[in-house]
Amino acid sequence: MDAIILQILNGLDKGSAYALIALGLTLIFGTLGVVNFAHGALFMIGSFCAVTLSKILNLSYEVVDPTKKDFLGNPLKVKMPYVESWFGTDMGAAIIDWSVPLAILFSIPVMICIGFIMERGLIKHFYKRPHADQILVTFGLAIVLQEIIKYFYGANPIPTPAPAVFKGSFDFGVILGFDPNTIIYPYWRLVYFGFAALIIGAVFAFLQFTTFGMVVRAGMADRETVGLLGINIDKRFTIMFGLAAAVAGLAGVMYAPINSPNYHMGMDFLVLSFVVVVVGGMGSLPGAVAAGFLLGVLESFASMNQIKSLIPGIDQIIIYLVAIIILLTRPRGLMGRKGVMED
Amino acid sequence: MSKTNLTRRGVLKSGAVAGAGVALPTIFTASSAAAYTNEPTGSTVTLGFNVPQTGPYADEGADELRAYQLAVEHLNGGGDGGMLNTFSSKELKGNGILGKKVEFVTGDTQTKSDAARASAKSMIEKDGAIMITGGSSSGVAVAVQGLCQEAGVIFMAGLTHSNDTTGKDKKANGFRHFFNAYMSGAALAPVLAKAYGTDRKAYHLTADYTWGWTQEESIVAATEALGWQTVNTVKTPLAQTDFSSYIAPVLNSGADVLVLNHYGGNMVNSLTNAVQFGLREKIVNGKQFEIVVPLYSRLMARGAGENVKGIMGTTNWHWSLQDEGSKAFVKSFGTKYGFPPSQAAHTTYCQTLLYADAAQRAGTFNPCGIAEALEGFDFDGLGNGATTYRAADHQCFKDVLVVRGKENPTSEFDLLEIVEITPRGQVEYAADHPMFAGGALGTCNPGA
């Protein structure tokens, strides 16, 4: 029982990341009709916003410490962050420690700008082209973006820790009446789950309860009619692209302490997120979120030793197996709408 | 009007004679020019450096390439000479190899076996490389070693730690300076037993490919021999990025040690996840829970940041060693590039010098002559103490370093501290050891 609860917790946390990326993908597909293979790269760039802010806050001047030697035997140059000299050692260290949460504020304008530039500069030229062209150009863009990041940040992962207060794990087992250490879960992953729920809720509320959201939803249902009513739907869809980029970016920022960011992390998530979108139903926002959590939980269960001993290698194929079963029984996915990608 | 006496038989006869006449010199020159693949004829000799320039190990590949360029500079008489000054063999004089200036071409392995074979093939066939070296993965090393055997050139392996490279997949044209998984286990287990006791229960997470399997087998055998129990061994997909679902059940299993048979990005992520779960703060079976990373790479350890503190593992070489060879190499590399070399840089630099020295001693670039010169070669002064290239499997035997993540690093390079230098006698094994069984060295292939 404890193992099952543990894997559900794990799955919810994985599912949070899948759901956030799939939500942005579906938003773009539903509004602009574009299959955006560069969406994983936006997640990766979000993570690198956290890395960048951390590097900015760690900008240092060098002080020579004659008592210590460097690897060549010269007096050691010790790095002193400017932030610590400006705000005092304790305050400066605290600011550096909280660089990931601070990067949320830093990443929103950056990601919206990147989203605007991508949409206006490249993707809008492919609205009327076949989906195959869109996939090729956005996939190419993803490769370009990740190579740019690799050029500036290198190929190795870069550690970007969470604030010290979130280190360690919470013992759920004790609360639920199990022995200590049976169900433990890291604090930061709980924060990530809560954050994902908040963002998903905010996006749904924005679309459901604002005039802007209503117009966007109307445009998703029937773009032509909304245009005929004299509403500039293109402008709104561009803003939605920026919003989707920001959602992916925020997912990436908060993910940075979970796995050290590297230039390839977007690709690792992209394929899975597409499966999530397809399983959820193309163009369905609730479907994307539900499928994200469902596949996250199933993936976690599949990596349990008991399951792996019954079906070896199931952890590597479970997501695709579930996708095949769902698409065979419900060809439009869990909550797919009629007429989407069926022309 | 003149009359020509052309007959069919006459044309055939004269054609055959003329054809034989034209072909005759080529038949003789062909056999003499192609005594072996890519025999250098001019005043230069070309080496092929096959390293990951793109992909997840690109930083390691870049460091290998820096070391190769430094080695070429030293072989041609440039720079301060580096480890040429400390190398026990004094055949190399800084005037290239056998009087020929050393040049090089590079290939990109992308850490993919097929791409690595293609780039090695291109360097051999198009660029005339006489030797191929480099790589940062056992899968790549085994694939390229096989190609070099077929092509008739020497392969000096780069960073490859799987037992199979000089075990079941060994080849007569291939040589490995780097240590292997068996040696890691043999060096690490006694130190672990001393630090954590002999009554321990270990849980292994293992990357699901050749290197992971051989490392798990080696560490399990070495630790069980000292009294540890192995609670479980779980294979994880190579492409896995989030290891939480594999780490979550560890505490419930009754294990008090987690062994991460992961390398590169896998190691960074699994270690980071394990530390996030707070495993190291837990007390299990009345003992402090411990994590072990049997194969360390300083470049990769940087990715895990503070999580490596106190974690034990092994490494082939470390820049803080204080022998004359290591000091000379660190000075030479550090002055040129501004930071200390990695173990990948060290092994590739050594391999280049060892190849050049073998050619010099053999008096030829013929792969069979070089192989003969390397087999059973005893040397010193290259940073690992007295070392032997064993003839039976082309594996180098030398001291192994047991290291631990440093608690108070003074710089971004100062991540590991040496716990013990395990003498080579403790990590040696018989050439027919079961973990290295299968496959045969075969005979040297000079190619053409």
UniProtKB/TrEMBL annotation, chain A:
Pfam families for this protein: BPD_transp_2
Membrane-spanning parts: 16-35, 42-61, 100-123, 190-216, 237-258, 270-298, 310-328
One GO cellular component term: plasma membrane
One Gene Ontology MF term: transmembrane transporter activity
InterPro entries in the cross-refs: ABC_transp_permease, BCAA_transport_permease
This protein's record includes keyword Cell membrane: yes
UniProt entry tagged with the keyword Transmembrane: yes
Membrane-topology annotation of the record: Multi-pass membrane protein
Gene Ontology biological process terms in this record: amino acid transport
UniProt subcellular location: Cell membrane
Chief place where the protein resides: membrane
Alphabetical keyword list: Amino-acid transport, Cell membrane, Membrane, Transmembrane, Transmembrane helix, Transport
Similarity annotation: Belongs to the binding-protein-dependent transport system permease family. LivHM subfamily.
The protein's name in its UniProt record: Branched-chain amino acid ABC-type transport system, permease component
UniProt organism field: Thalassovita litoralis
TrEMBL record, chain B:
Cited CDD domains: PBP1_SBP-like
Signal peptide positions (record): 1-35
SUPFAM superfamilies documented for this protein: Periplasmic binding protein-like I (SSF53822)
Keywords: Amino-acid transport, Signal, Transport
BP-aspect Gene Ontology terms: amino acid transport
UniProt xrefs under PROSITE patterns: TAT
Domain of life per record: Bacteria
All residue ranges annotated as the Leucine-binding protein domain in the record: 44-406
Family as reported in the entry's similarity comment: Belongs to the leucine-binding protein family.
Protein name, per record: Amino acid/amide ABC transporter substrate-binding protein, HAAT family
